[in-house]
């Protein structure tokens, strides 16, 4: 068995697609009417579809998981975040852990937690 994809819920698919394309360089591989497969194994699913399938309400900013990306030039990435046309909601701005790794944590437009860190 292997892990094929990671699926996250999107409040607004077009807004989320633009976010992941512009900030992370991901591309759409397949768009199936409410389910969008992007490069790097990320799948976006429309919130209404998720709630219909699960029978549960989505809880944005629930802090139970995060998407983790690595970026060697994290200062340039932090600047890109600051210039993004929509306001970014931060958990923590660029900081350095005691072990030397620099990280930044923030939410995507749907409230999914993202961490970007320098490679270890």
Describe what this molecule looks like in 3D:
This protein is of the alpha/beta class and 120 residues long. It has a single domain (6-117), classed as 2,3-Dihydroxybiphenyl 1,2-Dioxygenase, domain 1. The chain has 3 helices and 8 strands. Strands 1-4-3-2 form a 4-stranded mixed beta sheet. The protein has a 4-stranded mixed beta sheet with strand order 5-8-7-6, with helices on one face. The radius of gyration is 15 Å and the shape is globular. The model has no long low-confidence stretch (mean pLDDT 97).
Secondary structure: elements and pairs:
Blueprint: E1 6-10, H1 13-24, E2 28-31, E3 35-38, E4 42-46, H2 47-54, E5 67-70, H3 74-83, E6 90-96, E7 102-107, E8 113-117
Parallel strand pairs: 1-4, 5-8
Antiparallel strand pairs: 2-3, 3-4, 6-7, 7-8
């Amino acid at each position: 068995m292997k892990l094929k994809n990671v699926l996250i819920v999107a409040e607004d698919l077009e807004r989320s697609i633009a976010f992941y394309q512009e900030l992370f360089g991901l591309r759409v591989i397949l768009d199936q009417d409410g389910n969008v497969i992007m490069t790097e194994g990320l799948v976006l699913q429309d919130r209404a579809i998720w709630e219909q399938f699960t029978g549960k309400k989505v809880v944005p900013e629930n802090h139970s998981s995060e998407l983790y990306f690595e970026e060697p030039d994290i200062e340039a990435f932090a600047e890109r975040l600051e210039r993004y046309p929509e306001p970014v909601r931060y958990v923590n701005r660029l900081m350095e852990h005691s072990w030397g790794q620099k990280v930044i944590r923030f939410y995507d437009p749907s409230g999914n937690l993202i961490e970007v860190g320098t490679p270890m």
